[in-house]
Amino acid sequence: MACANYYDVTQWPVGDPKEDIGAVINSMLADLKRRQTSSDADGSGKPGAVIYIPPGDYPLKTQVVIDVSYVKIMGSGHGFVSSSIRFNTPKEQWPDLHELWPGGSRIFVELPAKDGDEAAGAAFYVNREGDPRISSVEFENFCIDGMHFVDDGTGEPNPENTYRNGKTGIYVACAQDSFRIVGMGLVYLEHGVTIYHADALNIHDNFIAECGSCIELRGWGQASKVTENLIGAGFRGYSIYAQNFGGLLISGNNVFPRGKSSVTLSGVMRSIVTGNRLHSFYPGMLELTDGASENLVSSNHFYRSYEPWPPMKDHDNGLDDLYGIVYIAGNHNSVIGNHFSEILDTENIHPQGAKPIILRVAAGTDNYIATNHIVAQTESGPTATDEDACFSAQVEAMLSAAHAQPIAVTCVCIDAGAEHNTVLDSGTEAQVLLDPTRNAFRATPHL
Are 21 and 154 in a shared domain? Predict the structure, then answer.
C-alpha cells in the first residue's frame, strides 16, 4: 500500500527535479504541512515524512526551507569524490578520468551568493520559531556539491583553491532537538554544516571535505556528538568548530590536513575529544579558547607535517610553530594519553631556528597534562612534483620514516600568565618550559 508520507522527487507531479530539485522539495513540504495540521487527533499527531532522492544529478536553484519536524531527506549514496584533485589536474587529462563529478544522489547547488547573508547561500535552510523546538529533522546518504570555488581577489593562481563561493550545505538557524546528519557527502562548499543552538545533535559517519569549513556548531548547545566522520577543511576554515557547548562528544573522527584547525572549542565546557586521528599541515590543530574548561582530551593521535603537494604549498593558517599543536586558554582541562608526531624538516619550521611547541597552555589554571608521548623527527619521504597525485604524495610522506632524524621541540610550554597547572610524564626536563614555583611538574625519565 502506498504511503502518503513517502515522497520520491522523481515521481512528484509539481516541478522537475532535473530543473530545480529545491522547488520540488519545497512543494512536498507544503503538501505535508497542508495534510498534517492537527497536533493531537485521536492520540495521533504529525508523523512527518520521508523525501527520497534516487541516484542522479539534481540542480538546486531554489533554497529548501524546512520549518516542520520529523522530516527525513534521504538518498542512496553520498557520492563523494575529490574535486580538488580534479581541478588541479590539467584539463587535457580530464577525458581520461573515469569520473569528473561527485555521484550517488547528488544535489549541486546553483544558488547565487549574497554579500553579508550567509544563510542565503544554503541549500537547506532550517528555521522555526515557537514551542516546542523543531525536532528530528534528518539528512541521510546523499551528496551536496558546491561545484566550484571562485576568485576572491587574493591572487590565488587557481580560483578553485580559494575555498570561497558563499555556499552552505545545511544551515540551521534556530534552536532544535535531536537532528541527525548521517552518511552524507559534502564537497566544495564554503560552509558544509552550520548549526546554531543544537541539543542532542548527531553528526555521524559523514564525508565532509574540501569545504572552506566543515562542521560549525555556533551560538551555544549541549549533549551532542560528532563521531566517526571523515573531515577536511581548507586553510582558512575549521574542520570541527564548536562555540559555548556543554557535553559535546567528538570521537572516532579522521580529520584530514589543510583545515585552519582540526578541532577548535571556543568557550566549550565539560566535553570530550577522544579517539580521533588528526592530521594537519599547520600548528593549532586543537584549540581550547575563550575559557574552554573541564574538557577531556585523551587517546588521540596528532600528526603534524608539512604540505607535500605543490598546488597548496603557498598556503598556511597564519600561525607559527611557537603557537603549539595543542593551544589551551582555559581551566581544569585534562590532556591525557595522547600521541603526537611532529614530522618536519628544519627548513620548514617557523620562525627559523625555533623549537616547535607541542602542548601550550597560554592562559588558565589547574590544567592537567599527563602521559603524553611526543615523537619529533625530520621528514624523509620523496619530494612531490607537480605531476604527482595529491593522494600518492601524501601517502608517501606519511609512510616514510626510515631515514628520519630527531628534531628539538618543546613538549610542554606553560606561559607566564598560567599557574597551578600540572605536567606529568609528557617531556623531559629539557623539553618542558614552566615556572616550577607556580606549576607542578614531573619529568619523563631520560636515558
Answer: yes
